[in-house]
Each structure stands twice: as C-alpha cells, then as structure tokens.
Amino acid sequence: MMADIDREMAEKVMGWFKDFLGNWVKYMKPTHFDSDAKQATIKMCKAENWHPSTDISQALGGPDTVVGKMRKKGFSFSMAISSTNDESHVEFVKYKDGFAAIIGKAKHKDPAMAICLAAEKAMGG
User: Fold this and answer.
1) CATH assignment of 4-122, among 3.30.2120.10, 3.40.190.10, 3.40.50.300, 3.30.565.10
2) pLDDT in tens, 74-100
3) What is the pTM of this model?
4) Positive or negative CA dihedral for 39, 42, 47, 48?
C-alpha cells in the first residue's frame, strides 16, 4: 500500500495523476510520436514502485526525483545530517524579491522521509 506522503509527492510535486490501471502518469503535450504518428510517448511509473519517502534514489538525484522537481519549481535545497543524533535536516526555500517567501523545513532519521516532509510543507501541505 502506498504511503500518503508518497501520494502527495506524486500529485503535488511530480504533477502526476493515476490512470485507470493504477499507474502514475505525467501528462505531457505530445512531443514524440511513433512512426505511424498515432500514439504519443508519455512517462509512467507503476504506483507500487513509487516510494520516495523510503527510496533515496527517488527523493534525491536527477530531474525526475522530488528534489529535481522542486528545483524546477524554483526552490533551493539544502540538507545536513546532525552528528549528534543522525537526523537529516532538510530545507526547501523559494525567494521572491530577495527574501525567502516559501519555506519547507523538516527533520527525520531517514533522509528520504525528511526530503518528502520538507517538500510537502513547501508545497502547502
């Protein structure tokens, strides 16, 4: 079963929706068609494979991760791990006119969960 935080990341951060088969789908304007020009290529992720709150490779990394999408939305990202209690401290900040306008902060023992919690707060969750 998918955790609520993972669903929030799919919908609010990644901009995905669920299709009738239960896959997470990103709506895209058709940019690539097959040779018959009948079918557009769209990105999909099986819902059972989407767990950024526990899979650091889905939370942190390239453009198709939680951090990657937050950066595309104009947020800066920082993360520090405390040496005293091994908690990850994560912050997403969006600036407007030189001032921090939106801030999402979180801390958690699991870095992937800390990233998701901070992203959820920054997106208004």
Assistant:
1) 3.30.2120.10
2) 999 999 998 888 899 999 999 988 888
3) 0.82
4) positive
